[in-house]
Design brief:
Blueprint lengths: L4 E6 L49 E5 L10 E7 L4 E3 L2 E3 L9 E7 L12 E5 L14 E9 L2 E9 L12 E3 L2 E7 L2 E11 L8 E9 L14 E5 L4 E5 L4 E5 L5 E5 L17 H5 L2 E8 L1 E8 L7 E7 L28 E5 L14 E9 L2 E9 L12 E3 L2 E7 L2 E11 L8 E9 L11 E5 L4 E3 L6 E7 L2 E6 L17 H5 L2 E8 L1 E8 L6 E7 L20
Parallel strand pairs: 1-20
Antiparallel strand pairs: 1-13, 2-15, 3-6, 4-5, 7-8, 8-9, 9-12, 10-11, 11-20, 12-19, 13-18, 14-17, 14-19, 15-18, 16-17, 21-22, 22-23, 23-26, 24-25, 25-34, 26-33, 27-32, 27-34, 28-31, 28-33, 29-32, 30-31
Length: 555
């Protein structure tokens, strides 16, 4: 083939103020932010003949460079089937459970800063290694205004540390969301990427970012040892490969780690979107996680052969192998999945088998309540206990809220799950809010509404809240109405609440969850029942940054 493609990705993060005051009460979790950015890479490291390495069966492999000790501000721990391998120091460590299948506690790191880098925009000049086309400019490729950090515009500069050869250097630059670099066959290049202040050229340290390499393949279909792509890097915190990877990893000298292609690549297999990869594209992808860097290094090499004149290198932000809820970090400030019931639909309504859609599963399914990693998600509400309601047809969506009606004197445990709208596969949301509104009681103080929750990272109430909080044991916390109310004071918009409406709201921040548990309770009284309103983020969420410490009490 004429060219073989290599795609690369990179993410970063930027700091914002943290939570404070009564707004933050931590129960379990972690957080951080990410940044989209793009870069190039290359170098010559000898010995392409050794393709030894393990062929992972894992969904994703997460490994730590032996020379770097990873640091996280915090971590959200989740119980999952063991599907990752981690490498630290002298070897691989695998968790095992006594009896039964292996499981382990995995953590999702908190991004330290969240910065969105855009390499599709301004290419200031392109003259890597003096090869042009802008030969009157410094021997580098400079991408302008790739990000803004603390109000300052940031550029990224790429230079070669040795000889750089290209058959078509005029094509180096940025196209359609990716950076682009060409390289001659039977050659290699060492690359140094630096982040600098656009005005002063002073170095800028980026807290955390991903760099992903795509489409690692060979250029000779008859001899897989010829025209082989190899990428190498060092001083990264972790690296990731897709399931049943076709890229062989090897520890090299002086802290370098190489990743070598093993399969012939076809032009029609080239990825079109970094986050939307086919199975074969994922198998030929490697992603790196770097932390606290103003510069980082990559090497790219093509072994000898006679079928092609060169390869090309694409780079962008995150890759599609950084799966939701597993490898991606959580933005410390912002970055949540927005739950929007106003735009959602009720696919079916049959909670507890009470109808009205009695031929459907015993659940309420809210369709298309939001997007997670670009994919539509549904929310399913079911119960494992008794559910009674005076009018099941009241359940569903009312304006911008989901609504559930409960009979008096009932206590109903609810399971809330998030799934892909098309495949029904569980969808792990890295960060989201769920709010319960209009928590009140009847005039005689008997029909008290109460919400129980657990597994949340933080909760939020107004400073003059009319909701009493109490720890209930086994991880549960209850929130009980302390003020009367009726239909006249019901809210119409969760983000636009008056002072009294704010007093009757509690909002929860959840991290790295595909399902949560809540309980609705209505005290016994002569009336028929009460309605519970819930939505995504509410107006009482005034602090959007995750509290760094593990536990913090709310007033």
């Amino acid at each position: 083939m004429f060219w073989s493609t290599l795609l690369v990705l990179l993410t970063i993060t930027a700091a914002e103020p943290g939570c404070e005051g009564e707004q933050c009460a931590v129960h379990d979790g972690s957080a951080a932010g990410t940044v989209m950015l793009q870069v190039k890479s290359a170098k010559s490291i000898a010995n392409l003949t050794d393709l030894q390495g393990e062929d992972e069966e894992a969904d994703l492999e997460a490994e730590t460079d032996e020379d770097i000790e990873e640091e996280n501000l915090d971590a959200v721990e989740t119980d999952e089937e063991e599907s990752l391998e981690e490498e630290t120091g002298g070897g691989k460590a695998k968790s095992r459970r006594r009896g039964g299948s292996r499981r382990r506690r995995r953590s999702t790191p908190i991004c330290r800063e969240e910065v969105v880098l855009d390499f599709t925009s301004k290419l200031k000049h392109s003259n890597l290694g003096g090869q042009g086309p802008d030969k009157d400019k410094p021997e580098e490729i400079r991408f302008g205004n790739v990000a803004t950090i603390k109000g300052k515009s940031i550029d990224m500069i790429m230079i070669s540390l040795g000889v750089y050869k290209s058959p078509m250097s005029k094509y180096n630059g940025a196209y359609g969301g990716f950076g682009f670099l060409t390289l001659s066959k039977d050659s290699g290049v060492d690359l140094k990427m630096s982040f600098v202040d656009a005005m002063t050229d002073e170095p800028v340290v980026v807290s955390q970012f991903y760099f992903s390499v795509f489409d690692l393949d060979t250029g000779d279909s008859e001899d897989l040892s010829k025209e082989v792509e190899r990428i190498s890097s060092k001083r990264f915190s972790k690296y990731y490969r897709g399931r049943n990877t076709l890229v062989k990893k090897k520890k090299e000298a002086k802290g370098w780690t190489s990743f070598t292609a093993t399969r012939y690549g076809k032009n029609d297999e080239d990825p079109k979107e970094p986050l939307d990869l086919s199975k074969i594209q994922k198998r030929q992808t490697v992603s790196f996680l770097f932390t606290d860097k103003s510069t980082f290094y990559l090497s790219y090499e093509i072994s000898p052969g006679n079928k092609i004149i060169g390869h090309d290198l694409y780079f962008a932000g995150r890759s599609g192998i950084l799966k939701e809820g597993s490898d991606a970090c959580i933005p410390q400030c912002g970055g949540e999945v927005m739950l929007d019931f106003e735009k959602a639909t009720v696919k079916h309504n049959n909670l507890g088998g009470l109808g009205p859609d009695k031929d459907e599963p015993k659940e309420i399914r809210y369709g298309s309540i939001g997007k997670n990693n670009g994919k539509s998600i549904d929310m399913i509400v079911s119960t494992s206990g008794e559910y009674r309601t005076p009018m099941p047809k009241l359940n569903g969506i009312r304006g911008k809220f989901a609504v559930l009606a409960l009979s008096n004197g009932t206590k109903t445990p609810l399971k809330i799950r998030f799934v892909d709208s098309d495949t029904d596969k569980p969808a792990t949301l890295l960060k989201f809010y769920l709010s319960f509104l209009d928590i009140d009681h009847s005039e005689n103080k008997e029909e008290k509404e109460k919400v129980y929750a657990k597994g949340f990272r933080e909760y939020f109430r107004s400073k003059k809240t009319a909701i009493k909080r109490k720890g209930e044991g086994k991880g549960w916390t209850s929130f009980t109405a302390m003020k009367s109310g009726d239909s006249k004071d019901n809210p119409s918009d969760p983000l636009k609440l008056d002072t009294e409406q704010k007093r009757r709201v509690v909002s929860f921040m959840y991290l790295s969850k595909s399902e949560i548990d809540v309980i609705f309770e209505v005290a016994e009284d002569k009336g028929r029942g009460r309605e519970f309103f819930f939505a995504g983020k509410s107006a009482v969420v005034t602090k959007e940054c995750i509290t760094p410490n593990r536990r913090r009490r709310a007033r």
